[in-house]
Structures are given as C-alpha cells and as structure tokens.
TrEMBL record:
It comes from Esox lucius. Residues 1111-1120 have a biased composition (Basic and acidic residues). Residues 501-688 form the Rab-GAP TBC domain. May act as a GTPase-activating protein for Rab family protein(s). The lineage of its organism: Eukaryota, Metazoa, Chordata, Craniata, Vertebrata. Residues 876-911 form the EF-hand domain. Residues 1121-1130, 1141-1152 have a biased composition (Polar residues). This is TBC1 domain family member 9.
C-alpha cells in the first residue's frame, strides 16, 4: 500500500495489460535500456526504413496482421537475471513512448531497487501497470465491451491508417487480395458502418483504398477460372475486385447488409443505430468478430424471420433450434426449425412447403414439458385459447427454451393486462366526463362494402352460387382439420385452396390472416379510430391528392358511386397518410385500398394497407416509387433468364419498363377485369411478390409470338392489353362490372377468353422455381442501381436548374454538388458540434434543390477549401464564414441549400468588382455576434443626402489628408464605375449604411484576408488609405445632419445625467461649403439635449427643414446600454430621392477626429494590423458615425492594389481539385470522390 500511495500514476491509453514476450530482439531495435526496462523500435519504421530487412518486416506486419504496424514503439519489462520479457506499453510515435519511458525512470526505478526478490519486482510492475489502466478507465469512463483485444487492435489500426474518427464503427475485417491492374496486393479489407477500406504494404509499396457505401453502384460476387471467389465493388468511377477470402459468403453477406443500410440512408434518412437489445446469439464468438458484427448478424436474421412469417416490423428474433412437430392431420413428425421471438413461436418444415405454423404468445395458455420417451425425446407442449395443442420434440436445451418462452409469455400477459386497464380507465373517465358526447364517435364502416352492394339474380347465377358454396365448405373443412385463425397449420392443401379462389365472404378474413395484418390489428386496439379522429379536418398536400383521386378509385363499382364508399376510402387513405408521412399518399394506393374496402371492414382495410405498404411491397408507394422501380429491374432480370428469346425484343421496344409499373403498383387491378384481378390479390397475400413476377412472366410467355412480330411499342402494348382484357373469372358470383382498365385496343378480333385460374396454375407450373430468397438477392442488386440513378438524376436536375444563374460550367457544378452532398453525408455519419439534425437537412420528398442542405458547421469546412476570401488562419476564417453563411441563408432557417451555396461562391469567383464589394459590405451590415463588438445601440438617425457634385467637393476636402496615399487614377475608376452602375444605382442606394462597429469589423476582415498574399504589404497600405478616407467621410458626414430627441425616450433619461451638446448647421450654409461649425455649450431646447435621438418627418427642426433631402434610418440596439460592450448595428436606408447622390449621417460627436484615436493602422515589420485604442471599450463606439456603400466602393476604387486583388481571376478547377485532395489526405472529413488510392514507393 505504501508503495502504491507514494508512486504517482500516469494514466494513459498507451499502457497495456502485461503480455509475455518470448524474444525481445526479433525484428526490433533497442534504443534505450536500464536494468529493468527496454525501449524498442520496430525495424523498418521511421527514417531510413531499415533497408531490405525493414521492408520485409513491414510486409510481414501487414500480412500477419501485427499490431506493430500501428504501434511501432514499445516498452518491455525485463525480469532480472532471466530471459523473460513483459510488454507493458506501446505507442505510435516517439513522443508518446518517450513520455512513458521518462515516467518509468522518474517514478519506478528507485522504488524497484528496494525489492530483494525478483518475483516481487515482477508482481509489483504488473500490478502497477494494471492499476494505471484501471484508474485511466475509471477517470475517462471507459466501459468494458464485448470486443476482444485482437479486435480492439484492429480498430486502432483502422482509425490510424484511414484517419477515421471514433464515431466510425468498424464492423469486421478480412484478409484478402486487391487487384490493381493485373497485380494482386495482399492486405486487409476493413468493413465499417459507412466505408469499405483496404490497406496493403508490400516491400515498401503502400496501397490505400477508401470507398463510401453510399457511392457503390454495384456489388456482386463473381467466380472465374482465375478468381474463383471474388467480390466486385463498382462505383461511378471504377471497379474494384477483391479475392482470396477465407469465407467469401460471410464477407459478401456483410457487405450487402452495410450497402443496404447506406441506400436506406439515401432513401429516407433511416440511418443505422446500433440496437443494444439485439441478442448475442453466439455464445463462443470467433476472436475477430466484433459485438457490432454480432448485432448486425442478429438484425439480418430478424429481418429474414419477419419476412418468412409476415410478422410486424419491430419483432426481433431471440433464437432458433432444430426440432420436430407432430401434425395431427397426417399423424407424422415433421422435421424443421422452431423460432422464438418476443411475441411469437413459429415453425417451418425443412421441406419448404410442407408445413408452417405461427403461434402468437397472446393466444398461448400453457407451455409445459412433456415426458420424454424413445418416440418423443425432449417434448414440449403448447396449448392455445382455441383449444389447439402443439407438440414439439427433439429439442436441444429444452429447459433453457422453456424458460425463455415463459419469460416472453409473462411479458406478453402483463402487457395485455396493462393495456386493458388503461383502456378501461380511459373509457370510464370518458363516460363520466362526456356522457352526452357518445354520438360524436368517429363513424367507420363496420362491414365490408361488398356485403352492402352485392346484387344477385338467383335465376342467372345459381350454378356459380353452387360452386361458391362448395368453395366455402372446402375452407370450413380445412379449418376443422388444420385449425382456424393465426394458429392454423399452413400446408400444400392451404395453397391449393387459395389457387382455386377464396370465397367472396371469406376474403377479408383470409387476407388479414395470410398478410399478417391481423397481428398488428390485434395488438393495436383503438389505434385506427384515434388516427381517424386526429386526422379529421386537417389538410396538407397528401389530403389534397387524396381528394383529387377519390372519384377515380374503381368508379365502375356501385360501392364507390355514393358517399358511403367514398367517405370510407377517404378515411383510410387519410389515416394512413398521417400514420406514415414519409409515404403520405401515392397514386395507385386508392385503387388497391378501394378493393380492400370491398372485402374487409374499414379498420381491417387500414391494417391490410399498412401490411402492403410497409412490409409486402416495401418502398412501392413513396414519392419516387423506388420499390416498384427496383422490382421492375428484377422483372427484367427474370425475363432475361426465363424468356430469353423475348427479352431483347422487349428491351428494344421499351415495353417492360412501361408495363411493369402499372402491373406491380396495382397488383394487376388496373389492367385486368376486377373479378379476375382479385384472384391475383388472393395469391399475392398468400405467396407474396413472387406470384406477381410469375404471373407477369406467364403473360409475356403466352404472347411471345405476337410480341416478336410487334413493330413498335404501341403494337406490343395493344397485344398485352387485349390479352389482359380477356382474362375472365367464370366462377365469379359478382354481376358484370364494366371494365375501364384496358390499355389499348384495335378493331381486330377480340382475344379468346383466358381463364384466370388456368393462368395462375400455368404460372406456377412454368415459373414456380422462382424462390423468394433469390428475389431478395436480385432486389438488393437493383436497389443499388435504382437509388444511385435517382441520386444522379437529382444532381443533373439541380445543375440544370442553376447552370443559367452562374458562370460555373456544368462539370464544375457537378463537382461542387458532390462536395456539397459529401459534407452533408459526413456530418450524418459522424455528427458534430452543430445543433441541426441530419434528418432535417435531408428530405427526399422536397424539390431537388432542397433535398440536401448544410448548416454552419458544414459550411465552414467548404468555405475554407473553396472560397477565395478564406484566410489561412482558421481563427480568422470562421467569423467570415459565419457572416457569409447568414447572408446566404435567405429564409433564416440556419440551413442553406445548394443554390444559395452556389450563389455566394459564384459572386466571389466570377462576380465583378461591385458585386464582390457589395457582398463583402452586406456581410458586415447584417446583425450578429462579433468577437469584439457585442452590444447594439438603439438610435434613430436622420439622414441627409447630397449631390454628386458636392461629393466631389467633399473628396477634394480630404485630399490634403490622404494625398500621399492615393493612387493617381482613382477618378478614372470613379467614372468607369459611374457609367457601369448607372442602371443599378437605385439598387445600390437601397443598401443599409454601415455604422462604426460594423466598419471596424469590415476593416479587420480586409486585413485578415490579405495574409499570405504575394502583395501583402501593398494591400495593407492600400487598406490603410481606404480606411483613413472612410473615417474622414464618416466624420464630415456628421456635420450635415441634426438629430433630435424622441419624446418617448426623453422620459427615460436620467435627470442627473450630463447632456452632451449637439451640433447645428450654421444659418443657411450650403452642403458644398466646408465652413461649418460645431456648437459647443448648452443646448437650445429639448430637441438638442441628450444623445442622438430619432427625428421623424413630422418633428423636424430648422436644420432638418434646410436639408430637405434627409431620410430616416434606424440603428437597432438588441442589448442594454450599460453592458459596457458594443456590437454591429442593423441599419436600413429608405429609398433616396436623388439618384446620383451620396449619403452621410448626421451624428453627435465630441470631436471631428475622434475616430483617428480609436482606429488606426500600425505598420509593423512583418505585418500590418488594425489597432483599437483611445477610449475605453465600453464607450469606443461612436453611435452617430456611418458610411454608405457608395462611399465604400468609391474609396476602394482609389486604390489600384485593392482593385487588382478583388478583380483577380479565381481558378475554380484548382480549388475543387484541392478540396478533393484535402479530403483524400485522411482529414476529419473524408474524400468526396467515389474512391481513393494512394500508392507510394
């Protein structure tokens, strides 16, 4: 204890838990040593590289994944009189390791000499290092995680090699080869949440590759004779091939998953967040698998589980195990897998279509272990409320499984009981508080619309009704034998019944069952009614579109020819739009929903629509119908595979893309007769999207000869339209409904009738080999292509919109857009100190120009790289970036879009002198926080204007003061400016005036802009000249205005406060005269007392009357006068009456040269700086001093150096290239290019 308490600790991340090292000298060079410790450096690291031996060592470190590549320095503890060494610290730089070495010498060497036993020394050193690590973890709140030490080393390498911040989470890494040309480079592939990275070091040649997942356009696993297991990663710019994987399937699945996450971010802002509740399924995880990788594996399994059993989106798989299920209908044990999740127990047979089962825990009453026997080893019995019992056997870890199910069952029971209590308390309170408002409950349709509008003629339909009755009996017999409701055994017999057609009065019930919508409806009682009530009477873009399409929804059906059906359709669509504003409403939803309402109750139709939009047809009904476009691509792939002779012809005609959208979005409801299309919907709810692909291929195959003979797309569409019009349902008991969905018709012979049931049977026979998992694989491939195509289209549209507004070329605008978008994405990946939410900055539903926006934090990064005025010093650059950002943020939402960004950059790069100076001037007029000037002063100042000839006299008055600093040709510049800006002079005059605080900041900006410029000193002298000239203008301008006191503010004055005197114009002195006097002494009347006061048009004095050209301008103060600080003031100028006049302020001052003492330029040996002096800071701002933009512009034009600086051309291409290169260098923000390759040596 004594030794620990008297030895200072040095907490650091470089200490490591002592590890035994067998050979201290192998591949290491000893640099420092003492009796107990050795400091070593890895061979090949640092200057010189160690020759050939160093190159070999570096190569071995990379290939063998050695930590020495990241930590080339280490400290070993040497056991006295022994060859045993212990690694106690390592570091990435000499500075780090030297600090640790010095600490050891100062704190431990003397202590270790006290020990006599060598074992005690070793024990003490190891304990001390472990104590330092523990203390560091405690002080820095370092929490233990599930990652192994080996993986933590990989994380350190990843961050160091690629310059990644801690926010970038590494998922896994793999050994592989990267093919650069014809040469493979052996190295390591790092897969993180947002990037795929590769690193190789072979004999002095280093290769780095960084690709954003969001930039990948294609990801596929390829197999060739040369590369049997290769993964090809494609971006817009290049293709990259990786091979020689130990497990290519595992690697590729993870790459697919991470690319999918990135596409989801681009699509709708659903970024990845590590879900801590995901279970760790593997008890013994491989050494190199991270906790994040295990969570991602669990997420992927949960997604497949939900898709297989049509479960709600938030259901998470807890585990699965092999077992057998006793099936009473055929009295056999079926081998399969049991899946257990939070709310469900599911089973699927090993033979895919043999049997499947879904048991909601809300239906379970008893879970018990049955007695084991040779016939039934480790059985488990589960009983449900509808008196069904399910017997599972051959369960591994049965006791553990029963415990997990019991825990979930208890949670489910508690949740149901709690919801009932809440619902009961709410209903009882409603009865007490609102007993008379029961009739105000939102009306909803309590039965399917078909039951109200079914018109039957018994004489005509008796044979069909008899067949319908037989179908109903077949389903009832099926329910008796296989069970009814969610717990029904689903077998081949169930599928056969569906293909024969679901009876009319059972459709709603079975659609709910097969789609899984029944689960969400059962677990959300009252949800739909609440949603309808909240959405009633509210209007937005979605509701407007809904109203427009209501009467276009199945108008031929009598149910939608009156207000009852229309009202139900309106409620369902509006409720869903409010439930899911990301989708809102999309055309085609009305057609599908109207059919749902015919066969299901209103609430059931709503939940069927939820299942359709959010699970069964993902992303179909968003604003860009991404899901339908993805499946269109899948359909093209399937057509190429299954009808290859037709594929090329259809592609040439462009028919596939035309037909597939209408077929898929409405599930054939818009292209087939209604009574036939509902049979397709039956199959869809049972089988999913694959039946739609099968049916579409069957339609093409049935018309293959006619399509091959078609000369154009119109003829091909006519062939398909006539065929689909002829698809009939002879078993339908519905009265004939006029078919309004046909595409194109001609005068030819009508197509022979096609029986819908035969068509469905044939599609299963010919194309039944299409598997759901294959479709999902194809969807992933097409999703990459579709979303990247949408992103490219967005970029082109944005560029096309603004290319006429700027002088940038199309290529430059596209490059800038990529940089702009990359800044947004990087902030989404890694966050930052900014207050804006990434999801607020990206909204795909907005117009193209508004989809990506950046806040001030991201703008600062782009400003320093692209804008020509950005000072090299970030301390000076940040305030200027903030001023420009506020100027460009037209709507004041603290975000700027690409157009606003380009408008500012275009002026600074391509604008003329006046435009550049105007934006510089406006940047300092705007109100905001400044580093030096923080308080605003409220004052109303009366402005006088004077003519251009008087301005010339005023300029001549300044000649003695600034003559030695003037450029000789400033008058020519004035003339040129006058001619060039005559048309825009009125706009220039609208600019507000600059007060003293703002002028000071403007001067500081000018001085900071010129640092590191080749003409730095000359520019500083020119700025000093302009500053002096403007100071005199502001001072002299105060002589010609007479402020008065605002009566309202007069009462606020402190009676004991000394009142300074105000100036007054002498008699009838003309504006051109320089013989004006200041009146010092007592003021004459109330109007001359106190500080500068507002002078309204109706309160003029004699001075104001003489200066008829005066205008009012207002200086607003946002802070108390006694704060002792000052800030910029917002000044607005009314429209002037004299187009050629210049303006000056009439202000109160104690001396005409006061500013000379407060603001002057001091020329130092190597630099010129702006110095504030004179009066104390709290009183250093002259509230009455001001200049106009015309004065600022005219003054700058007098200095050739400044004119040349602002007119200097900007090499935009070089700046863009530099910005991309800076990002490539592994800075905190990553490259904007699709990929990066660094080769050296």
């Amino acid at each position: 204890w004594w030794l620990y308490s008297h030895t200072a600790t040095k907490p650091s991340k470089m200490w490591v838990n002592p590890e035994e090292v067998l050979q201290a000298g192998a591949l290491w060079i000893t640099e420092r040593a003492n009796p107990y410790f050795i400091l070593q450096k890895r061979k090949g690291h640092g200057d010189g590289g160690g020759g050939l031996a160093g190159l070999l060592v570096g190569t071995l470190d990379v290939v063998l994944d050695s930590s020495a590549r990241v930590a080339p320095y280490r400290i070993l503890y040497e056991t006295p009189h022994s060859l045993t060494y212990w690694l106690i610290a390592h570091g990435s730089s000499r500075k780090e390791i030297t600090e640790h070495w010095e600490w050891l010498e100062q704190n431990l060497l003397q202590t270790l000499s006290i020990f006599e036993n060598e074992n005690d020394i070793t024990t003490f050193v190891k304990g001390k290092v472990q104590g330092i690590i523990a203390e560091y973890n405690k002080n820095h709140d370092v929490k233990e995680d599930d990652d192994t030490d080996k993986f933590k080393e990989a994380i350190c390498k990843f961050r160091k090699l690629f310059g990644m911040p801690e926010e970038e989470k590494l998922v896994n890494y793999y050994s592989c080869s990267y093919w650069k040309g014809k040469v493979p480079r052996q190295g390591w592939l790092y897969l993180s949440i947002n990037h795929i990275c590769f690193y190789s070091y072979l004999l002095g040649k280093e290769a780095k590759l960084v690709i954003r997942w969001a930039d990948i356009t294609q990801l596929e696993k390829s197999a060739t004779l040369l590369l049997p297991d290769a993964v090809k990663v494609s971006t817009r710019a290049a293709e990259h091939v990786f091979s020689v994987f130990l497990n290519v399937n595992e690697t590729f699945k993870l790459m697919e998953q991470l690319a999918n996450i990135a596409m989801r971010q681009l699509l709708d802002n659903e970024g990845f967040e590590q879900d801590r509740s995901l279970p760790k399924l593997k008890r013994k995880s491989p050494k190199k698998v991270s906790a994040l990788k295990r969570d991602l594996d669990a997420r992927a399994k949960s997604e497949r589980y939900r898709a297989l059993f049509r479960l709600p989106k938030d259901e998470k798989l807890d585990g699965h195990t092999g077992c057998t299920l006793w099936t009473p209908f055929n009295k056999t044990h079926i081998l399969g897998q049991m899946f257990v999740s939070t709310n469900y127990i599911c089973f699927t047979s090993k033979e895919e279509t043999l049997c499947s089962l879904i048991i909601p825990l809300r239906e379970v009453t008893i879970v018990e272990k049955a007695d084991s026997s040779n016939v039934l080893p480790s059985p488990l019995s589960i009983s449900t409320k509808n008196r069904m019992t399910f017997l599972f056997a051959n369960l591994k870890d049965r006791d553990f499984l029963v415990q997990r199910i019991s825990d979930f069952l208890q949670q489910t029971t508690s949740k149901i009981r709690f919801e009932r209590e809440i619902a009961g308390s709410l209903s009882s309170s409603d009865d007490e508080v609102r007993p008379c408002l029961c009739h105000c409950i939102v009306p909803t349709a309590t039965q399917a619309l078909m039951t109200m509008y079914r018109r039957r003629s018994p004489e005509e339909f008796n044979p069909k009704l008899a067949k319908e009755y037989l179908k109903e009996q077949a389903w009832k017999n099926h329910f008796t034998e296989y069970g009814q409701g969610m717990c029904m055994y689903r077998t081949e017999r169930t599928k056969d019944l569906v293909l024969q057609g679901i009876p009319e009065n059972m459709r709603g019930e079975l659609w709910l069952l097969f789609s899984g919508a029944i689960n969400e409806m059962a677990t959300h009682p009252g949800y739909y009614e609440d949603l309808v009530e909240k959405s009633m009477g509210k209007y937005n873009l979605a509701t407007e579109e809904i109203e427009r399409d209501l009467h276009r929804s199945l108008p031929e059906h009598p149910a939608f020819q009156n207000e009852m059906g229309i009202a139900a359709l309106r409620r369902v669509l509006t409720a869903y739009a409010f439930r899911n504003p990301n989708i809102g409403y999309c055309q085609a939803m009305n057609i599908v929903t109207s059919v749902l309402l015919l066969y299901a109750k209103e609430e059931e139709a709503f939940w069927l629509l939820v299942a359709l939009c959010e699970r069964m047809l993902p992303d179909y009904y968003n604003t860009r119908v991404v899901g339908a476009l993805v499946d269109q691509g899948v359909f093209e792939e399937l057509a190429r595979e299954y009808v290859p002779e037709l594929y090329d012809c259809m592609q040439d005609l462009g028919v596939i893309s035309t037909i597939s959208l209408s077929w898929f979005l409405t599930l054939f409801l818009s292209v087939m007769p209604f009574e036939s299309a509902v049979v397709v919907v039956d199959c869809f709810f049972y089988e999913g999207i694959k039946v739609i692909f099968q049916l579409a291929l069957s339609v093409l195959h049935a018309n293959i000869h006619q399509l091959l003979e078609a000369k154009d797309d119109g003829e091909a569409m006519t062939v398909l339209g006539r065929y689909l019009d002829s698809v009939t349902n002879k078993d339908s008991t519905l009265p004939p409904i006029p078919h309004l969905h046909s595409l194109l018709t001609d005068d030819g012979e009508p197509h022979p009738d096609v029986d819908i049931f035969k068509l469905v049977r044939s599609c299963y026979e010919k194309f039944g080999s299409i598997r759901a998992d294959v479709i999902e694989q194809m969807r992933f491939k097409q999703r990459l292509r579709v979303i990247q195509t949408i992103e490219d289209t967005t970029k082109r549209n944005v560029v096309r919109t603004i290319v006429t507004e700027t002088a940038f070329s199309i290529d430059e605008l596209e490059e800038l857009y990529v940089l702009f978008k990359a800044e947004h994405l990087t902030s989404c990946y890694w966050g930052g100190t900014g207050s804006s939410n990434p999801t607020d900055r990206h909204d795909p539903s907005l117009p193209y120009l508004e989809q990506y926006r950046i806040d001030l934090e991201q703008f600062r990064g782009l400003f320093s790289l692209l804008f020509p005025w950005a000072p090299a010093n970030s301390a000076h650059s940040d305030p200027l970036a903030q001023r420009l950002f506020r100027l460009l943020d037209h709507n004041g939402d603290s975000l700027i879009n690409f157009r606003e960004f380009i408008s500012g950059l275009s002026i600074l790069c391509h604008g003329d002198l006046t435009e550049k100076l105007k934006i510089l001037y406006n940047m300092h007029v705007m109100p905001g926080k400044c580093a030096c000037v923080r308080a605003c002063v409220r004052a109303y100042v009366h402005v006088c204007t004077y003519s251009e000839c008087w301005a010339a006299s005023l300029t001549s008055m300044f000649v003695p003061t600034v003559k030695k600093l003037q450029a000789p040709d400033y008058r020519n510049y004035l003339k040129l400016w006058n001619r060039g800006t005559k048309n825009n002079l009125e706009n220039v005059k609208d600019l507000p005036k600059l007060n003293q605080s703002q002028f000071i900041e403007l001067c500081k900006t000018l001085y900071n802009m010129f640092s590191e410029d080749a003409q730095e000193q000359e520019l500083y002298h020119a700025t000093a000249t302009v500053t002096s000239l403007l100071l005199e203008m502001g001072e002299v301008g105060k002589l010609f205005c007479c402020p008065t006191k605002d009566p309202e503010e007069e009462d606020l004055e402190d009676p004991g406060e000394a009142k300074p005197c105000e100036p007054a114009l002498v008699g009838g002195a003309q504006p051109g005269s320089v013989y004006h006097e200041r009146v010092q002494g007592e003021g004459e009347g109330e109007e001359e007392e106190g500080e500068a006061r507002p002078h309204g048009p109706g309160n003029g004095d004699s001075g104001g009357e003489q200066l008829s050209g005066m205008e009012d301008i207002r200086l607003e103060d946002s802070s108390p006068k006694d704060t002792g600080t000052s800030s910029s003031m917002l000044i607005s100028d009314d429209e002037t009456k004299d187009d050629t006049s210049m303006s000056s302020y009439s202000v109160l001052s104690t001396g005409s040269h006061e500013l000379d003492d407060k603001l002057h330029c001091e020329d130092i040996a190597d630099d010129t700086v702006l110095v504030r002096g004179g009066m104390p800071h709290s009183t250093s701002v002259d509230k009455d001093w001001a200049i106009t933009f015309e004065q600022f512009l005219a003054s700058v034009l007098t200095e050739q150096a400044l004119v040349l600086y602002f007119e200097k051309p900007v090499d935009v291409a070089a700046r863009i290239t530099n910005a991309k290169n800076v990002r490539k260098a592994g800075r905190p923000l990553l490259s904007t290019s699709d990929y990066e390759i660094f080769l050296s040596g």
